[in-house]
């Protein structure tokens, strides 16, 4: 049997070109697939943005504490960063509908006050010290009082998601009712409490809430453990 004739250098070069091109196409397709996967992984949701913002806030605070440890001073939370991060939480109130409209409007107004205050004062401690010195900590409209209301709003969201995660059989209405009773009800009048409890029947279902947030639930557990608690 005669051996096959040797291939010319031109034929070998052409084959190598085709193989290199095929390898390039495969590599390019793999790169595009990885980019698509990465894009999907990095897709933002309201909860993921809140989680990332509070985590950055905690890192910044811890870093300031470490830098100031040798000076005998604790890290002070910057008012501008805090108020900007808190502003992201308002979307959670809006997704809860009519029942939490009262909380949303108050929360947004108080956060807006802190945003304006951050243009003049650097840290949360600054506004607290100022109101203590002026005797206006409990005065309506003071920055300290507005800060307490913002914290109460954050506590309400934290408590709601804690209840939300306690069991899969727990409806959003039950979770919200329990959270409101724990955090806000003691400070509200009978008329306000009655209106809020009646509005609980208009809350979305668990699935509807996750859909409104464009969320699969991945970040709900994380948000409970954030510094807002």
UniProtKB/TrEMBL annotation:
Record keywords, A-Z: Lipid transport, Transport
Coiled-coil residue spans: none
Annotated spans, Disordered: 1-22
UniProt biased composition (Polar residues): 8-18
Cited PANTHER family: ACD11 HOMOLOG PROTEIN, GLYCOLIPID TRANSFER PROTEIN-RELATED
One Gene Ontology cellular component annotation held by this UniProt entry: cytosol
A Gene Ontology molecular function term of the record: ceramide 1-phosphate binding
Tagged with keyword Transport: yes
Lineage: Eukaryota, Viridiplantae, Streptophyta, Embryophyta, Tracheophyta
Pfam family, one: GLTP
Ranges where the Glycolipid transfer protein domain occurs: 78-214
Family: Belongs to the GLTP family.
Listed name of the protein: Glycolipid transfer protein domain-containing protein
Organism: Populus deltoides (Eastern poplar)
InterPro entries, A to Z: GLTP_sf, Glycolipid_transfer_prot_dom
């Amino acid at each position: 049997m005669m051996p096959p004739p040797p291939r010319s250098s031109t034929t070998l070069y052409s084959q190598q070109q085709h193989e290199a091109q095929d390898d390039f196409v495969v590599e390019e397709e793999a790169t595009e697939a990885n980019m698509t996967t990465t894009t999907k992984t990095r897709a933002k949701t309201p909860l993921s943005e809140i989680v990332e913002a509070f985590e950055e806030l905690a890192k910044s605070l811890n870093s300031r504490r470490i830098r100031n440890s040798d000076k005998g001073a604790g890290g002070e939370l910057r008012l501008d960063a805090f108020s900007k991060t808190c502003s992201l939480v308002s979307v959670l109130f809006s997704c809860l509908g009519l029942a939490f409209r009262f909380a949303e409007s108050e929360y947004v107004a108080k956060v807006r006050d802190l945003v304006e205050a951050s243009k003049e004062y650097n840290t949360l401690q600054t506004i607290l010290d100022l109101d203590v010195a002026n005797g206006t900590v409990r005065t309506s409209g003071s920055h300290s009082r507005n800060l307490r209301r913002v914290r109460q709003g954050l506590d309400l969201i934290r408590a709601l998601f804690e209840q939300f995660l306690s069991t899969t059989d727990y409806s959003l209405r039950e979770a919200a009712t329990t959270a409101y009773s724990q955090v806000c009800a003691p400070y509200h009048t009978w008329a306000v409490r009655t209106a809020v409890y009646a509005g609980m029947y208009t809350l979305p279902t668990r699935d509807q809430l996750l859909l409104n947030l464009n969320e699969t639930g991945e970040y709900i557990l994380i948000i409970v453990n954030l510094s807002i608690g």
